[in-house]
Amino acid sequence: MSKRWNQAIQDRDEQRLMKRQAVLTIGARLFHERGFDRTSLDDIAKALGVTKPSLYYYVKNKDEILFEIISISLEFTSKAFALAKGQGRTGLDRILIFFREYAVHLHSDFGRCAARVEINALDDKFKDRIVEARKAIDAEVRALVSEGRQDGSIAPLDARWVTFFLFGAFNWIAHWRRSSGPATPEEVADAYVALARKTLSPQ
Amino acid sequence: MSKRWNQAIQDRDEQRLMKRQAVLTIGARLFHERGFDRTSLDDIAKALGVTKPSLYYYVKNKDEILFEIISISLEFTSKAFALAKGQGRTGLDRILIFFREYAVHLHSDFGRCAARVEINALDDKFKDRIVEARKAIDAEVRALVSEGRQDGSIAPLDARWVTFFLFGAFNWIAHWRRSSGPATPEEVADAYVALARKTLSPQ
DNA sequence: CCTACCGATCGGTAGG
DNA sequence: CCTACCGATCGGTAGG
After folding, report:
1. Which of A38, A172, A195 is opposite residue B121, by nearest beta carbon?
2. How far, in Å, CA of A155 to CA of A203, rounded?
3. Contact A164 B155 (CB under 8 A)
4. What pTM does this model have?
5. Residues 6+ apart with CB under 8 A from A60
6. Nearby residues of B190 by Cβ (< 8 Å), 6 or more positions away
7. Contacts of A175 in chain B (CB under 8 A)
8. Cβ-based contacts of B162 with chain A (< 8 Å)
9. pLDDT beneath 70, residues of chain B
10. Mean pLDDT for chain B?
């Protein structure tokens, strides 16, 4: 096979991946704005300038679009966690680094959609995988709380409650933030991290 | 008109109101579990042991069911706020009394539904009224934060951020709490109020 | 309070 | 990547 042939295939695959990404991004935006059930595949296709059947060249079905969006968001969240574990010295440090990354992520199309859109519509197979991944992240943050309690950087709080409490506070950003708001994502993140520090720190 | 006649009418009206209440309660439960769009009027009717057209004797349409549920929840929230203002001495006291009532409310069918279900499906008239009522409550809680800052019971925090932060933390209860969970509503409320106190209190 | 029904929407597919 | 279409669901109504 000539180089040109390989190149052509690679370009085609790359184009396809990029277009798939466009489907997911527009999907995330519309699902977040109108909700999953109130967004039709025609809506997504229209926003991309194609017809509905074309979408099936890039995704298997509507459920897969939402599942992929949430998967990508969860991968980002895991990376934020790894970063926090690598950079932070105390348990408190690590949690705050994580939540700062997470707060900024909640301002992106994927982050917003993943945190806000209900997954009820998905079938059990998809739903279970998402619930499991979320539980894993929840468990990791709880573990950081325990570390922080032991190294003295975090007050003796119930890890379970405070983790739910903080995820709720942060996830809510996806509900009220408009992209055209007055504050930047970083400003919101800073304000929220300061409040999280106050909630967690000893005394 | 005889007494018996008046009594009969009163009974009929009362029965109708009670049945309307049953429609709303079942609606709230199903909307919370499956989402508004994924709950059909047939589902609600079936759960009540009647057929769909019968529902129209008690409510105007599907939108009105959700709007009424949220209105009732917002009325409860306003009452909680009035209670807090009457009982609390400091700004911090008042906010914590309010959020304790609110946290318990979030365990009821109406509270859960109002805090979790998206209102996108409603037409603008309904939606605007809900948004306005929510803004009013938000403004009242912010005012309590300012009071607390002045009387020294609350740290010098940005009232806007901390109010969003706390509402997010509490509203999230409606997302993860199962009625069959290990903790009682009061235990959850106490744990959350303790965290809110830590977030707000000076030092 | 029910039977029967309409009109619209929508996910997905056939076939090219 | 498109035209044309199917089958199912669902809110709401007619008429009793």
Report:
1. A38
2. 7
3. no
4. 0.93
5. none
6. B100
7. 168
8. 195
9. 1-9, 179-180
10. 93
